[in-house]
Amino acid sequence: MTAESLLGTGATVEVHDVHKWYGAHRVLNGVDLTVRPGEVTVILGPSGSGKSTLLRVVNHLEKPEIGHVSLDGELIGVRRQGDRLKELSERAILTQRGSIGFVFQNFNLFPHLTVLDNVAAAPVATGRLGKPAAVELARDLLDRVGLADKAGAYPRQLSGGQQQRVAIARALALRPGVILFDEPTSALDPELVGEVLSVIKDLATSGTTLVIVTHEIGFAREIADRVVFIDGGRIVEQGPPSEVLDKPRHERTRDFLSKVL
Known about the structure:
33% of the residues lie in helices and 26% in strands. The protein has helices spanning 51-58, 90-97, 115-125, 131-144, 160-172, 193-204, 217-223, 241-244, 251-260; strands spanning 13-22, 25-35, 40-44, 66-71, 74-75, 78-81, 84-87, 100-103, 178-182, 209-213, 226-231, 234-239. The chain is of the alpha/beta class. A hairpin with a 2-residue loop joins strand 6 and strand 7 (84-87). It is globular, with a radius of gyration of 18 Å. It has two domains: 13-99 and 179-258, 3-Layer(aba) Sandwich (Rossmann fold); 111-175. The longest helix has 14 residues, at 131-144. The strands form three sheets. The chain has a six-stranded mixed sheet, with helices on both faces. The protein has a four-stranded antiparallel sheet with strand order 2-1-4-5, covered by helices on one side.
């Protein structure tokens, strides 16, 4: 199986006027964002700014009170009923999530399954592939992330960096149109960060649409097509790394970067 055939075709992600509250606290405040097919978008912002919540809204792990998200024009988690949006069934939402890969901070691997079975599980569970084809795909994906020799190991036998690379392979197994990364290196020891970033850099040149929440500014500068800075649940500014990171227009962005660079 070629490297290209392992991956899905990059999708367009559209976030339209999304608002999200936790009780009285507004976490997202009118977010509009379009991510083009194959684009690498990096989201930066201080803790509590709404970055992770935005990712969770994209794949409907969190439901926005106002606004909606679409993938290649298809609404995620809802359908139109007249002039209103009606929640889809959980089964329908799970089907849609097959097109949206998600890599969490803390890996979220199944501890009772081998590395190979962790990666092969989703294509089998969704009926997209039979077990033999899913196992073949899983082996190819593990090879892509440099872990072909760990197929028979269990998550507890791996380093944090290795576990996160397995999580990336698992996210790729359904050939999603977009992959969301929620601070994929934040739970790792510093010496393990590079191996995970290297895998993401490889994906960034593959045509897969990537949306990455990270505090790794140098990494963002290297791979992002666009950097989005969020504060207080709003997009403060966005643009190429050469603009947002080197010549930010807004005082809030400059203040944030002065503290992390």
